[in-house]
Each structure stands twice: as structure tokens, then as C-alpha cells.
Amino acid sequence: MASYWSRYPLLGEQLDGVRALIERKLHIRNKSIEQAVVALNSAGGKYLRPAFFFLFEAFGDAARLDKEQLVTAAASLEVLHLATLVHDDVIDDSPLRRGQVTVQSRFGKDVAVYTGDLLFTIFFELLLESMPGSPYMNVNAKTMKKILLGELDQMSAYYRQDQTVRAYLRAAAGKTAALFKLASREGAYFGGADPETIRLAGHIGFYIGMAFQMIDDLLDYTEDSEMLNKPVLEDIGQGIYNLPLICALQKNPVAFRPYLDKKQAMTAADVQVVVALMKKESGLEEARQLATRFTQKAVAAIQQLPAHPSKAILLEITERLLKRSC
Amino acid sequence: MASYWSRYPLLGEQLDGVRALIERKLHIRNKSIEQAVVALNSAGGKYLRPAFFFLFEAFGDAARLDKEQLVTAAASLEVLHLATLVHDDVIDDSPLRRGQVTVQSRFGKDVAVYTGDLLFTIFFELLLESMPGSPYMNVNAKTMKKILLGELDQMSAYYRQDQTVRAYLRAAAGKTAALFKLASREGAYFGGADPETIRLAGHIGFYIGMAFQMIDDLLDYTEDSEMLNKPVLEDIGQGIYNLPLICALQKNPVAFRPYLDKKQAMTAADVQVVVALMKKESGLEEARQLATRFTQKAVAAIQQLPAHPSKAILLEITERLLKRSC
């Protein structure tokens, strides 16, 4: 994490504060689980959500702020993210996450389910510590619900060859963009920014979150699994079709059918054929175009923000996220 | 549910209100999951936690209360309970719960994980609707944490033949008694009861919750799986040793070792031997004694409550829970 933010020392310092707070919160009597979650927390996560929180928080009146309250609110965002990661790993059966053995492959699915639940309660605690009685408690509850409905949307699309880009966008809006939106809005709000900046922050966070999810999908195809630290491509056999494949499927469903119809029985060779077909039908280009469109929306909205050093940082980060390779 | 509370028409009516509210809250865009959760909600659950809420709420000043707020708070308790049930079923791999196919066996573990998470968010929503800014938000967060730490305690004891009754009590205090305690205290608090009654309510809820968990453990041995609607005894092969077995193990660990050491490889015959040994070492009697001790504590505390019709109902219910066969 430190290296990712090395160009922005103030932000790096704020995020170190967030990480230290989360580590304190993760102290529980079951030491082996504590160890696994602490490892996940400190292993390579970029702390993007707290970072957006602080970048937008900066648009407000810094003098009047309670720093500890801000760190606590920022930490709540990352803990909510960690909770969903732990449960995602249960579902994907992932052996690795951020180069670390996942909670579920180390301790079993059972422990991972409760560990994720425990992280949800720590999220809840951090909210109560940072914003008791605030209307943002409700915004947080609604966001958590959107995330889970997004995950359930994605699941109900498993193996569906007729799924649309529109349905994909709806699921991505929930499972990824909702939390970036919350982080950005909440930062602007607790920073004391004006209502127009808060509104813009929400839009920017949303667009960045959408682009982020699309790039994630593209990286499944363009990078090898070692760089991504997670098994790629096997998603297809598990019925999880991501954006490039959905784009290609919409154009030529008949070509894919003989392979995708095999579902779990797809061989590695079948998957390779599907990937080749996806490329032939310009799935990657279309997905990248869509990601670029959302990035452009984010950039346009960032440019509407009031003059502030955070503005340049936001533009740099947005560009870097679009070009990232992991 | 209706029949369980038929002797207490006012309470039955209040619980019907809770059930209707929960059903409304369960409307989500994924209809098949909605259906599964609605089925779980309406299938045979006794709504014990909301019932205790209302029984203690009655000790306050009924005239000044917002009925809808009370129903919402009572519903939050049941939804938290439902969330933990759905995740428990993932972990136990249970095919049935309350005679209904579980979410996980109908839709897979994946969906069940997110469905449980979604129920946690509905719990959170209900709290925000019923008690925004109240100190009971914190009490709820702490209780949720206790429940999960209790579940994790239980898991870290899997296959441990040296586990103590004390460790069992700690896990039971978290995973079961904490929520009964919350329901009772919260009812008294929002009913506007005096501080001493609120304190007593917490104690009573806790004792009843402990006794309830112990009886649950006893029922695993004394009833057949058809009556219990869940597979029993197989827990032993999965390393989950419940109270009667723990009591017996403490007395004569050597006798059990050759069988329990086989862990997952235990045959049905091995399990039968273990059960016979447990009975020989008076495991059932000791567990029942412990359950009786906690019930007596509950009864003694109930008797300290101010005079009120709820007092007699609490005594009846406590007795009925101890004698229950399912």
C-alpha cells in the first residue's frame, strides 16, 4: 500500500492511520482468525475506498474537523470491503487473495462465513463510533444492501447466455460502484464540503467504481493468474460471465452455445475456444470502450469540482486505475 | 407460531405484526431468494426473541409508546436471528430447517452466504428505523459481535476432546444467550420500565437463553431427527461435541478416545458407541442438571420482577421451554 500512495505523502499517512485503527479493531480472542484477517488487511490492499474518502474530505473546511472521527469513518469503508472480500472468497473458492492464503482455504468455509460476519459487525461498530445519529448511518445501511443485492444479481445470472450488458451494469453498480460512491460522498460530507461538491463526489465515485469493475473484468483475460493472485478463466466454467464475454455473447450467441452449454463440464480447451471467440467478436474492445466511457464521465465530473490540490490527484488516480495491470 | 402463543392472544397479535413487517422487509428483486427467506420466516419459528421483547416491554408505561417503533425493534431481533440461522445452515450443511428446505440446499452455499448478509443489512435497517441515535444501537452492535465470537469459539473447539463445560458456557453465552438477553433488556428499555426491571430483564433473558441452548443440546439425543427437522448425531462425526457429550468426556476421556479420534472417519456404529458411553457416564443427567440450574436462576429473577400479568406468562413460558420436545 505504502508504495502505491508514495507520491501523495499526506494521503499515505492518513491511510496508515486507517490501517492501524483496523488492526486494533481486529483483536479478537480467537488468535488464529485474528491473524488471518490482520494478514488480509495488511497485504497489498490499496485502501482505495478510504483514499477516495480523504481525497473528497479535503474539499471541506479542514480546520473544524475531528481527525479521529474521519479516520474511523474511512476505516468503516475498508472493513465493509474486507467483509465482502472474505465472503466472496467463500463463494469463489479462491485459494489466494492478495497473494495470501484466504481465510476459507486456511480455516475452512465455515470459519470464513463467520469471519465475514464478524467484519460486518466491526463495520457497524465503526459507524456507531464515527457517525452516531447521522443521516449517513442510513446511507451506509442502504449501500450495504445495494452491495448484497448486486452480488445476488450476479449470482442469478450464472450460466445465463442471454444476460445483457444492462443487467451487468446493474450488478456492477451494486457490488462495486455503490461503495466507491459512498466513500466519495461520505468523505465530502464529513469534510464539510458544500452540497454541490457532495453531489459531484457521489457521481465521481460511482463512475470510477463502474470503470474499476470493468477493468477488473478485462484483467481476467489480459493478465496471467500469477499477476492477478487469483485463478482466472475458471470463472467461465463456473458460469460467471464477465463483461468482455457478455459483450461478445450479445453479438453472436449461437457461436458460443455449444461450448457454454457444457457448463461445469467445460474442459480447458473449451474455455480457450470461448476466449478466442470472445476476442474475435471484439469483446475486449467493447468492454474497454465501456470502461473508457465511464472513466470519461468521472473525469468530466472531477473537472467540475472547485479548485483544489485534490483535483489533480483524483485525475491522476483515475487514469492510473484505468491503466492498471493488477 | 399462532398455535404456540394461542394462550396469549395479545402477544400472538403483536407477533403477527412482527411477522408481517418482516415479510414486507424481505421484498427484494430476486424473487426466488425472497421466496426462500419468506418461507423460512413463516415456517414454524416461535418468534421467541420478539416474544420476550414484548413480555418485558409490558412492564413499562404502555400509554406513551409508539407501537410501530416497538414492532420494528422486535422485528430486528428476529431478523438478526434469521441471519444467523441461514449462515448456520451453510456451516452445518443442513438440508432442512423448520421442515423447509434450507436456502443453501435449495440455491447453494453461495446464495445462502449473501442471503444471510442481506438479512444482516435488514437487521441494520430495522435498527435505524426503530432506534436511531439510541444507546441501544451500540448494545445491538455489541450483541451481534458476541454472537459471532460465540460461533467462532464453538468452531475452534471442533474435535477437541479436552473442551471444558466452562468453554461450552462461554460459547453458549455468545451464540444463544446474548440475543435472548438483548431481546429482554431492549423490550424493558423501550417499554419505559424502571432501571431495576431493565437490569433484571437482561439477567432473565440471559439465563433463559443458556437453558434454551442446553435443552437444544439434550434434544439432539433424546429425539429422532424427524421431530427435530434436522439431522442429529452426525454432529459428532463433524467434531461438534455438545453439552451431554462434553460432560461425559470430562469424566472419562479415555473411554471415548478410540472412537472420537477417528474424527470424520467415524462410522454410524462408532457414533452409537459414543452415545451409549455418554449415557453411561451420565452425560444427559449432568446436562439436564445444568439446564435446570439456569432455569431456576431465571425463575428466581422473574419472581423479583414487579407485579404484572407478564410475570405469570414468563414463568409459564420458561417452564414450557424447559420441557419442550422440539
> What's the CATH H-level homologous superfamily of chain A?
Farnesyl Diphosphate Synthase
Most residues in contact: chain pair: A-B, 38 and 38 residues
The Rg value of chain A, from CA coordinates, equals: 20 Å
Please count the beta strands of chain A (DSSP E, at least 2 residues each). Answer: 2
End-to-end separation of chain A: 13 Å
Give the name of the CATH architecture of chain A.
Orthogonal Bundle
Q: Helical region count of chain A?
A: 16
Structural notes for this entry:
2 copies of one chain form a homodimer. In chain A, strands 1-2 form a two-stranded antiparallel ribbon. Chain A is built from 16 helices and 2 strands. With 326 residues, chain A is mainly alpha-helical. Chain A is globular, with a radius of gyration of 20 Å. Chain A has one domain: Farnesyl Diphosphate Synthase (Orthogonal Bundle). Residues 225-230 of chain A have low confidence and may be disordered. At the A-B interface, α4, α6 and α7 of A face α4, α6 and α7 of B. Chains A, B: Keywords: Magnesium, Metal-binding, Transferase.
A few lines on this structure:
Chains A, B: Keywords: Magnesium, Metal-binding, Transferase. Helix content of chain A is 74%, strand content 1%.
Which key features would you list for this structure?
homodimer, 326 residues, mainly alpha, Farnesyl Diphosphate Synthase, two-stranded antiparallel ribbon, 2 strands, 74% helix, 1% strand, globular, metal-binding (chains A, B), transferase (chains A, B), Farnesyl pyrophosphate synthetase (chains A, B), metal ion binding (chains A, B), prenyltransferase activity (chains A, B)
